Amino acid sequence: MSKKTFYITTPIYYPSGKLHIGHSYTTVAADAMARYKRLQGYDVMFLTGTDEHGQKIQRVAAENGVTPKEYVDKIVAGIKDLWSLMKITYDKFIRTTDKEHIETVQKIFKTLYDQGDIYKSEYEGWYCTPCESFWTETQLVDGKCPDCGRGVEKTREESYFFRLSKYQDRLIQLLEENPDFIQPASRRNEMLNNFLRPGLEDLCVSRTSFNWGVPVTFDSKHVVYVWIDALSNYITALGYLGEDDSKFKKYWPADVHLVGKEIVRFHTIIWPAMLMALNVPIPKQVFGHGWLVLEGGKMSKSKGNVVDPVVLVEKYGLDAIRYFLLREVPFGSDGVFSNEALISRINSDLANDLGNLVSRTVAMIQKYFGGVIPKERAAGDYDEDLKAVVSQIKGKTEELMDKLQFSTALAEIWKAISRTNKYIDETMPWALAKDEQNKPRLAQVMYNLAESIRIVSILIQPFMPETPEKIWRQLAVPESQRTWESAGVWGAYDPVSPVAPGEIIFPRIDMAKELEALSALDNSAPAQAKAPAQEKKAEAPKAEAPEGIALIGIEDFAKVDLRVVKVLACEKVEKSDKLLKLKLQCGDEERQVVSGIAQYYSPEEMVGKTLILVANLKPAKLRGIESQGMILAASDKESGKLTLVTIEGEIPTGTKVS
Ligand code: MSP
Question: 36: how many CB neighbours lie within 10 A of its CB?
Answer without folding.
Answer: 24
